[in-house]
Amino acid sequence: MSKKYIVIIPARKGSKRLINKNTKILNHLSLLEHTIQFSKKIENVSEIILTSDIDNTESLCNKYKIKFSRRKKELATDTTSTLEVLKYIINENSYRNVSIILLQPTSPIRSIETINNMIQIFEKKCDTVVTVKELNNPRIGKFVNQIYLPLNYKVGKRSQDIEKLYEENGNIYILNSDTILKNCLYMNNLYGYEINENEGIDIDTENDFILANKIVRNKQLSKINSIEINKKRKIGPNEKCFIIAEACDNHIGKMEYALKMVNIAYLCGADAVKFQHHLPDEEMLQNVPMSSNFSEPLYEILQKYSLSLEQHKELKSYCDKLGIIYMCTPFSKKAADEIEDLVDIYKIGSGELTDHPTLIEIAKKGKPMIISTGMSNIDEIEETLNILRPINNNIMILNCTSEYPPNYKDINLKLIPKLMERFGIIVGHSDHTPDNYTCFGAVSCGAKIVEKHFILDKLIPGPDQNVSIDPHGLADLVEGIRKIEVALGDTKTVHDLEKPIKSWARRSIVTIKDIKKGDKFTLKNLWGKRPGTGIPSKYLFDILGKKAYEDINKDILLPKLYNNTT
User: Fold this and answer.
1) Which helix (H) or strand (E) covers residue 261, if one does?
2) Which of 94, 131, 453, 478 could form a disulfide with 468 if both were Cys (CB 3.0 to 4.6 A apart)?
3) Among 231, 198, 225, 226, CA closest to 212
4) Average pLDDT, the chain
């Protein structure tokens, strides 16, 4: 690509068929945001301009650091053409002989491959390139006085014998500003670039919107791949939930306790046991104000309880000996550097989510990262992911509420699948409740990682004692998660163990009176009772009115010869 490009995104408030469609939310982002985010991925773009009369779009432009042009009233009517809007923007900005990429927000499904290929055509042909899609039904005609007249085929001709037809989709246009100033959308030739059916969706109705939402959501989920932690363990959509027993500083600085915690985590079946590497002077000032969950200053707690690097090395060696993954959270760049040779994966705490300088340095190490998202909003999560994923794409996030302990209403487990859909990323759950209920709920919502604080004994004092479970609770956590995982099927069938139950629990048609030969079957002499080995009771109404071929005693299954329904 040799040229620089200006991206123009036109978005009008009014819409006859789908009200406010440009601001409708598609998989957690507005159509406008989908278009802006895509435009920022295009190479060699010198400027992005959103022109609109929609309220609050200027703040959206400020958020994404793009230019805003407020649409004049006379350019925001149903009769205003896109060409008029483009011409105004070009004159407003004094663009001359510049390359323009026009993106319509109502076609939110695009690929970088498509835009790159179109740019190649544009730079080679030096004339307008537009997206086109093949018509599913190539039979085109018109009505004249109620008479249907085929335009491109003869009636009776097979579809496969009719020449393919395409429609100008308008998802993407690439053209020169001088072409627009001449009141044209192309000069000599209009070059088409064929896109697939998904990219060809133009949202104009509610059904279009529903279809696009499904496509975008599935596209995001399909991006989620397994991430290898070591040669024995992966985290991913088709892997078992990765259970982290969070030892934190509940060892209160005693190596004996820390080693016991490794033993407990291993015996309970956790995948990993996680510690923390604190270098207090590297991560905080001494006079940091504390929240109510601390009884003494955090700096003093860390000075008192933090493990040395040599102790972490000993813990790593012991974990390797047992066969449990050693994990450690660094709280500074120096701490991350010191444990680099000890960890297969970095776990980042919620407090560091927006510490971009440190996270960038950790991401450069190339190891998988799990980042907690407590105390944050969606924009902050997105901002961090946008910075880190180009450096290291092995990023996972944890739904987390940084309350100690949290209000259950603040935990928001249904956010887990939404984060997966929005970011196309592995999502887990970091839990600070004093029990396991929300962890079980998280797994049911799709969490592929669960991190839970634990302590050797609830009587041991410690900074996280009130949000930690004891060894019995940890064993229950692992057992419960593994059982829930097995139970997360989505098919409905009669299982082998149900079949013997079904044979006696279902109802069959039985006689409730003695019936003489020739008597008609009625609700007074037939009803449904167990077992289910006779004619199913659902066929009772089909048998009513028929006559008995023989005498039939009371309280027996109606003979199957009367069942002509199967």
Assistant:
1) helix 255-268
2) 453
3) 198
4) 93
Are 51 and 8 spatial neighbours (Cβ–Cβ below 8 Å)? yes
Element (H, E) at 473: helix 471-486
* 46, amino acid identity: S
- What DSSP letter does each residue of 54-77 carry, written as one string? STTHHHHHHHHT-EEEEPPGGGSS
In this predicted structure, what is the pLDDT of residue 485? 98
Cis peptide before 531 (omega within 30 of 0): yes
Model pLDDT for residues 8-24, shown as the tens digit of each residue: 999 988 777 777 889 98
Q: Is the pLDDT of residue 1 over 60?
A: no
d(CA 188, CA 267): 75
The secondary structure of the chain in percent helix, strand, coil, rounded to multiples of 5, reads: 35, 20, 45
Pairing of strands 272-277, 325-330: parallel
Q: Tell me the domains of the chain and their CATH numbers.
A: 5-222 (3.90.550.10), 227-486 (3.20.20.70), 499-562 (3.90.1210.10)
pTM greater than 0.85: no
Using an 8 Å Cβ cutoff, are 411 and 437 in contact?
Answer: no
pLDDT digits (tens, 9 = 90+) for 450-490: 999 999 999 888 778 899 999 999 999 999 999 999 999 99
Q: What are phi and psi of 271, to 5 degrees?
A: -75, -30
What pLDDT, on a 0 to 100 scale, did the predictor assign at position 294?
A: 65
Q: What's the confidence (pLDDT) of residue 190?
A: 94
CA 507, chain centre distance (Å): 44
Alpha carbon distances (Å) from 103 to 40, 67, 84? 12, 15, 15
Cβ atoms 30, 24 nearer than 8 A: yes
Helices 356-363 and 378-388: angle between axes, nearest 10 degrees: 40
| Backbone dihedral angles phi then psi of residue 210, each to the nearest 5 degrees | -60, -45
Q: How far is CA 177 from the centre of its chain?
A: 39
CB 370 within 8 A of CB 348: yes
